[in-house]
Amino acid sequence: MKIAIITNCSKSKKQKAQQSLIAMNLKEDSIDQVSNEWSEKVKASTCGTLAARDQYVGRSFKEVKNIEQTKSFDWHIISAGLGLISSEKQIPSYDLTITNGSPNSIIQKLNCDRGICDWWEKINEQFNHENFPIAKLLNENRDTLFLFALTKSYFNLISSEFSKIKDKSNIRLFGFRDSNNLVESVKKYFLPYDPSKFDGPDSENNGIKNDYPRRVMRHYVEHILCQLKGPNFEQESKLVEEYLSTKTPKKILKNKKYTDAFIIEKIKDYKKEDYPTHRILLKHFRHDLNIACEDSRFKVLFHEVL
User: Fold this and answer.
1) Strand partners, 74
2) Angle between helices 278-287 and 295-305 (to 10 degrees)
3) Are the CB atoms for 231 and 225 separated by under 8 Å?
4) Do the Cβ atoms of 12 and 57 come closer than 8 Å?
5) In whole angstroms, what is the distance from residue 102 CA to residue 119 CA?
6) What 3-state DSSP class applies to 263?
7) C-alpha–C-alpha distance, residues 248 and 280, integer Å
8) Smallest Cα–Cα separation from 174: which of 210, 205, 138, 217?
């Protein structure tokens, strides 16, 4: 059986975001007006583009590219700003997100009671002339096994798509099963990967929470699916459980949260030559100082000081 991979986009881009394609510059209006304004700006963009697979950068995209060394597949990307796109599609650099609290969150621009699922349908109507492009893709390719490796917010973004998929037996889901708004009839297609064991002390490919879905999907393709003659969810699940049974769960840290000002003062006690990256210092803060801080937040504070 052929496989296709569906992942979400990333905030990091190879090219600098074009000034006209920054969500905070959009006018606050109805979902129709905002989506029209955004799509017009994208279509009018004349600056350089790159294939989506190269425009988006970061650990998560490297994980998918590593799979290409052992397995051929079609790759589709879920973009909050462009809808469903092929990894080969030429796209401009932009800054639009569905992340709460970001100045470029599109939700802040909608002056009506509409959610991210509504935005997903509307942006695909603009760029793909189809409200549910994922469901259409799956319904037209029933001989393909579709692997979804998404963060919580992107599973929520496309949640309305799953009710339109006629045969869900050819989907596999990777990520945090209990942290999204999917219904139970869809959640049952998550492979039983346990993040506490997969990212434990004897992990073969540990990382941060954001790239976890792509890392477990890579393990599935390279070490689980290859053991079987064809897809079989029950057998695949047993193989995953057997693999995890040999792994030690990571220690649950009971750390305390502090203000940005407090953490900045703590960072000032260290030298960059001793802690060249924010993740090395963050590990020390978490495991030795019992200070809780989310990775992206700590990264910003780290670069303010060092």
Assistant:
1) 4
2) 110
3) yes
4) yes
5) 16
6) helix
7) 22
8) 217
What's the token pair of residue 233? 């969810």
State pLDDT tens for residues 178-216: 878 899 999 999 999 999 999 999 999 989 889 999 999
pLDDT bucket at 115, cuts 50 / 70 / 90: confident
Residue 153 CA to residue 51 CA, distance in Å, equals 24
Distance CA 72, CA 186 (A): 26
Measured in degrees and rounded to the nearest 5, phi and psi for residue 304 equal -70, -30
pTM for the full predicted model? 0.86
Other beta carbons within 10 Å of 289: 12
User: Within 10 Å of residue 238's Cβ, how many Cβ atoms?
Assistant: 13
Quick check: 238 and 279 in contact, CB under 8 A? no
95: Cβ–Cβ under 8 A, 6 or more apart, which residues?
Answer: 11, 17, 21, 22, 23, 24, 104
The CA distance from 145 to 147, in Å, is 7
Cα separations in angstroms, 104 against 11, 24, 37, 133: 11, 5, 15, 24
Tell me the C-alpha to C-alpha distance, in Å, between residue 208 and each of 122, 198, 200: 32, 11, 12
Both tokens of residue 102? Answer: 């970001």
- Over residues 66-109, the pLDDT tens digits come to 999 989 999 999 999 999 999 999 999 999 999 888 899 999 99
85 φ, ψ (degrees, to nearest 5): -135, 155
Contact 82, 23 (CB under 8 A): no
Sequence-distant (≥ 6) Cβ neighbours of residue 304 within 8 angstroms? 264
Q: Alpha-carbon dihedral of residues 209, 2, 167, 219, nearest 10 degrees?
A: -20
> What is the rounded CA–CA span in Å between residue 256 and residue 292?
5
